[in-house]
Amino acid sequence: MNNQLQPKSHRIAILAEGSFGILASKTATVLVRYLPDNVVAVIDSAKAGRDVSEVIEIGAGIPVVRDLAEAMQFQPTMLAIGIAPPGGELPSAWRAVLREAIAGGLHVMSGLHRFLSEDAELAELAAKHDVVLWDARKPPAHLPVATCKAAEVKSTVILTVGSDCRVGKMLSGIEVTNAAKARGVRAEFCPTGQNGIMVWGWGIAIDAVVSDFTAGAAEQIVLAGTRAHDVLLVEGQGSLVHPGYSGVTLSLLHGSLPDAMIFCHQPSRDTVARYTVPLPSLLQMIAQYEMMAAPIKPAKVIGLALNCFDLSESEALAAIAAAEAETGLPATDVVRFGADKLVDAILKVHPAKSAEENEHARNKTMSHSPER
Amino acid sequence: MNNQLQPKSHRIAILAEGSFGILASKTATVLVRYLPDNVVAVIDSAKAGRDVSEVIEIGAGIPVVRDLAEAMQFQPTMLAIGIAPPGGELPSAWRAVLREAIAGGLHVMSGLHRFLSEDAELAELAAKHDVVLWDARKPPAHLPVATCKAAEVKSTVILTVGSDCRVGKMLSGIEVTNAAKARGVRAEFCPTGQNGIMVWGWGIAIDAVVSDFTAGAAEQIVLAGTRAHDVLLVEGQGSLVHPGYSGVTLSLLHGSLPDAMIFCHQPSRDTVARYTVPLPSLLQMIAQYEMMAAPIKPAKVIGLALNCFDLSESEALAAIAAAEAETGLPATDVVRFGADKLVDAILKVHPAKSAEENEHARNKTMSHSPER
């Protein structure tokens, strides 16, 4: 697992130059949401002087600053790269900022596909200044091919799936985990992407794994998560109808072998983002996930997490009611209305599995008793 | 594309120590089948002294020899690693043989996940003896995320899909390509795995690509293949019900965006090899592929390639008849009964697409004519 640095113990300046916004800088938004006490400044010259909450609605009190020099007055100990562009390349203009940060003694946290720790110039500079270049996306070496071992864990495994990228699969996983923990459930979020890893401190970015081992990586995450937890919320990736990333999605499904799924969707979206592919209906997309799970380990979608950030409250309530009517499943916007409905749905699966486990254990003991 | 060495211009000794057999050494079998004039010996001490055809039914006249020293009397110019074990590691006992081969002036061709060219000891030795370590599985750098461009090519794109690994997706692709060429069609085989790349001389091993770019790699293969060919046979990988490799399979489907699919299956197999996952019925598996294709680009399965190597001739004919009755699709064993039935099915799709293209081109010209 990837846990070289613990961001929760750092003062973080986020680099989002030229692209700070709710969706344009997803990593920045996630760090502000889940590490609000650690983020000390966001760098974007175009929005300098504003409060972070004026730009992305959360993060009140955190300033947007002009450049790294201005951010340094807030004594950061780490610079986080705030975007993850398609293809994962480092925008060339940012290299100078990274050199400046490293020379200034800051650790650097990155979720880019192109690993900073393998960049000769930056690695040499980091060694010289004794700072860590942490590539949260870099997978561990020697991952196995998946073996269906995830089907045998005692925890109840829930996978967040969805209609597209950026619809809330990570966020729903975290919110449901937190809501379950608040109700006394030994729940754990299992990150499968760089942003989740950055805020939660462990996991594997499965989209950076060689494809023969991607399902194996998902399996490893479940096997790690099950050690001390009863309910695992595995972070979904991509979508089965995404032309670029569908393979990652299916590897995750067949590697983690969930007991049930939570389907995430943005009601205002009707095509795959950046493509012209129309999204099928909710029922069709749900059926597709269930049909792909069935041959290896059947799993049902048991609830919907709708991302209504771009709708008014009444529109959001209407979208939730419509989705519930269409699917017959409980739906919520976890940010706006909380995740309790989804925790309820999970707890209906969870005791059923626990009872089955106990029954199985009792039968095993009984069948062995004559030998004792 | 990966074409560092052209195996067709070499005299090849195949290393299959301890595992030479039809399925146990799939790479060896493929090289013997498609490069029979190039393979000069197969190394397996357990079967030394026999003719290759006594072990794998093809390759008459090629000797199985005890070791590399014995193989050297046939003046090989290249040593090919004859297996591709799960996980792709190099069996440690073989390292000594590789050192001996390199020191003897042989190029080395490998399909292992662990790249020989990145092994410091072997790379240094190869440089010293001026030979190439060719990792057929090593993908090109800087592959893109898939963009649906494969849907726009003029060629008719056929993807071989299937129920499991090792059911004949590569072999069917090659046999159908050859049968189509024999009938005057400008057909091309598009390799997506190390064995296909070795025998065909180009391609990308998509299972070795980082999963975010696997569909993009499949797209690149189609874009390369379409340049001078009317019909492309894209080599399938894995299966949608394979717990380890299903993600590779789906990436290939959504990256190559075929016009139609050929479904490959071994009738005697009823579970996924090395797993306890039961195979769904033919109709269910076909429906699964068609359902996964539909949201991005609809494609039908138009024929079946059945691998009946372990059945008698009458059993094979019965299996083919049963599959045709179940699915209503033409079926054949391409090795035993030829691929013409499948070429017929493809040619029904192909002229339809060509006519559509022509119609589209004519309409385009007409709509533009007023501006001229």
Task: Determine the CATH superfamily of the largest domain in chain A.
Answer: P-loop containing nucleotide triphosphate hydrolases
What value does the average pLDDT of chain A take? 92
The total of helices of chain A stands at 13
Determine the oligomeric state from the structure: homodimer
What's the CATH topology label of the largest domain in chain A?
Rossmann fold
Give the CATH class of the largest domain in chain A: Alpha Beta
Number of distinct beta strands of chain A: 12
Beta-strand percentage of chain A? 5-15%
Largest interface: A-B, 46 and 46 residues
- The global form of chain A is globular
Strand order of the largest sheet of chain A: 3-2-1-4-5-6
- Poorly predicted segments of chain A: 364-372
**Main sheet of chain A, how many strands, which sense, barrel?**
6 strands, parallel
The portion of residues assigned to helices of chain A is 25-40%
